Amino acid sequence: MPIGFIGLGNLGTAVATRLKEVGETVLTYNRTKEKALAKGFDVVDTPKDLLSKCDVIFLCLFDSPAVDNILHMEDGLLCEELKGKTIIDLSTHHFNDVLEVHKIMEEFEVKYLENPVFGSVAPALAGVLTLVSSGKKEVYEEVKPLLEKIGKEIFFLEKQGSATKMKLINNLCLGSFMATIAECTSLAEDCEIPKEKALDILGVGGGTSLVLNAKKQKLITEDFSAHFSNDAINKDLHCLQDLAYSMKKPLYSAAMPKELFSKMKMMGKGEEDFSSIYQLFKNS
């Protein structure tokens, strides 16, 4: 039986491609059908159409409103046929909204796994994403063999909402590291140190990180085609600040990178890869 897949943005396309490459039959729905066909995927006309053909459906959408739309739109997923299906939700939600999704899925007797993705296009294509799951343990155990086809490190946090909160916390590191690496690179250039040499040195010095390893070539070539966009990191850091506010907890180190990525969005660069924040420092 095919696996259903909804959402063919940069990450979704990579994950769905990986599933096909490891032998799964993938049937997709995408808001723009022509784009999905152009990428070589089999496509249905509506989310509801997947329910008669697939027992397991992945969601890989930008945010909670996008998921809500897929559920509630005309011929969306919320219907009698959804009962008993399995939904693996790779989307990054707002920490409050994902609890509402859990509630809806329980009402429809759906096996739902909150499963945000840590990583972007390259690790997705290689099947080495980091995945954090929340939901019922028996659902997690049932779908884990499928998760292992796209992820290398897989963690389970049973309490609803925990995986989403951990994704937001992780992206504080991600955004902060990227902003710091970008500023260090620009400063080295201002000191007449060649950019590639500076990145080599940072890579074995204080800048050693998965972020630098992943974004080094983009910084060198200044090819900022998106793997993980400024829009996405800006949205996630905003949700993280909401989380801290709800806990009445200060969040000292999130404010500056969030505003830097907001600046990139304001400059019309929201769809560029988040490594393009380098341009802020280079041009200042």
UniProtKB/TrEMBL annotation:
GO terms for molecular function: NAD binding; NADP binding; oxidoreductase activity. Keywords: NAD, Oxidoreductase. Residues 161-280 form the 3-hydroxyisobutyrate dehydrogenase-like NAD-binding domain. InterPro entries: 6-PGluconate_DH-like_C_sf, 6PGD_dom2, 6PGDH_NADP-bd, HIBADH-like_NADP-bd, HIBADH-related, HIBADH-related_NP60_sf, NAD(P)-bd_dom_sf. The keyword Isomerase does not apply. Residues 3-155 form the 6-phosphogluconate dehydrogenase NADP-binding domain. It comes from the Bacteria. The active site is at residue 167. SUPFAM superfamilies: 6-phosphogluconate dehydrogenase C-terminal domain-like, NAD(P)-binding Rossmann-fold domains. This is NAD-binding protein. It comes from Poseidonibacter ostreae.
